Amino acid sequence: MDSTPLPQAPHPLAPDSQTACYLPWLKVRVLIRAALTHPWAAETWPEVREHLKWLLAEEARLRRQGWLN
What's the pTM? Predict the structure, then answer.
């Protein structure tokens, strides 16, 4: 008997991406908050720091475009 789990069917009312309906600035803010509040292991911090640089740059880009005014 094969013990591989069956893929779950998406909810019929859910969009293709669960975050498809969120605004870009909200996605970035949630990711920044998660990165800063999660208790990361010491060996994971270099990778998190690289992601934070990109997220802060993306937030600045969105701010210049007027999303955060």
Answer: 0.63
